[in-house]
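Hey L., structure's done. Input below.
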Amino acid sequence: MVERQRRLLEVYAHLHDHRGVHTQKDLAHILRYSRVYISSALNGNEKNLTDKLFKSICEAFPETFNLNYLWQNSNPWSL
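Output:
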């Protein structure tokens, strides 16, 4: 699960730098999760680093993220 946390942190950093997602609250709002849930996932809580969370990220940003990367170790960007 450490790998999933690392990938989620990469996603958050990319969204912060390139997509105007400046806070955990912003990300939570876009993904329709609570801020507490997102914070917990970013801090490595395994019960929150779910397939559903990563699917939600890819659904919210389909032009940006590749689900194969988020689940495995391939190219992180879909383009």
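The helical segments are 2-18, 24-31, 35-42, 51-60, 67-71. Residues 4 and 72 are 9 Å apart (CA to CA).

-- N.
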